[in-house]
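Customer escalation, tier 2.

The customer says the design service returned an amino acid string that "doesn't look like it belongs to this structure." They asked us to rerun it and document both sides in this ticket. The original structure tokens are below, unchanged.
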């Protein structure tokens, strides 16, 4: 485990569930997302309270409950998708590959955001050897998805612009369609450099409507949602000359003051 990862307290408090079971209960490819940043102390309280009601199970694959995710994001030279998110465009998207380092799987994904902040994720299996580039098949898939969802053509020039690497585990609700992900140990890199986040927990509540029971529990602990996008935070932290106002609170909390000064430049 990387040195900045927070302890995994809580993973063993829940019964295990395989991927098929989790997807059957709470696949939620189209959902409402609420994101939070919490301290290790608040995290310990949260998972203890969740474990008390016996309504959650943890994703378990081959005996593992926490997994390393590596996401490579693609954007235009002028950072079109970053600017769409910074400006709050109604029809915006992100393009990425996601490697599941512990299982060896990889996927190509397009995350679409539209009306009422609903998020839809379209994905296809992908060869890990191509994780840092777009194949012809990926470009065709991207074109089909963007034309179908937003009636637009994909950008012509796309290249890898940032990578995020972190640890995640997932809880699925037994009695309803809700899911929680818990991320820690975030490391961001780009052609400009590399930066490690502070050992906080990023909690994402995914449900079919606003304000799930887990959200209400977080609110009762005094935690409120934040604008969080790992891609946009990576770009903002490593490219300080760019405006990153929508994520300034999250950036200060997760990376500390003077994030750009803490970044390690790429040696050329």
């Amino acid at each position: 485990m990387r040195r900045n990862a927070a302890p995994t307290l809580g993973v063993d408090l829940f019964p295990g569930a395989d991927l098929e079971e989790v997807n059957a209960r709470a696949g939620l490819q189209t959902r409402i997302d609420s994101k939070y940043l919490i301290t290790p102390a608040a995290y310990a309280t949260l998972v203890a309270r969740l474990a008390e009601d016996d309504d959650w199970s943890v994703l378990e694959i081959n005996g593992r409950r926490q997994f390393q995710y590596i996401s490579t994001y693609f954007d235009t030279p002028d950072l079109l998708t970053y600017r769409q998110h910074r400006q709050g465009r109604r029809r915006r998207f992100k393009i990425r590959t996601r490697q599941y380092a512990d299982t060896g799987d990889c996927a190509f994904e397009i995350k679409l955001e539209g009306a009422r902040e609903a998020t839809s994720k379209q994905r296809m299996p992908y060869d890990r050897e191509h994780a840092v580039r777009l194949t012809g098949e990926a470009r065709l898939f991207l074109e089909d998805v963007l034309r179908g969802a937003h009636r637009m053509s994909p950008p012509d020039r796309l290249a890898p612009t940032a990578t995020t690497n972190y640890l995640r585990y997932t809880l699925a609700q037994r009695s309803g369609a809700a899911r929680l992900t818990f991320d820690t140990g975030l490391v961001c890199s780009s052609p400009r450099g590399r930066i490690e986040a502070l050992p906080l927990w990023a909690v994402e509540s995914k449900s079919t409507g606003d304000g799930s029971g887990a959200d209400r529990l977080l609110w009762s602990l005094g935690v409120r949602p934040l604008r969080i996008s790992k891609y946009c935070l990576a770009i903002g932290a490593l490219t300080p000359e760019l405006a990153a106002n929508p994520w300034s609170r999250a950036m200060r909390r997760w990376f500390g003051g003077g994030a750009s000064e803490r970044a390690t430049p790429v040696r050329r």
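Tier 2 assessment: The sequence is consistent with the input. Residues 136-150 form the longest helix (15 residues). Residues 12-257 form a domain with the Hypothetical Protein Pfu-838710-001 fold (CATH 2.40.320.10). Sent an explanation to the customer and offered a walkthrough call.
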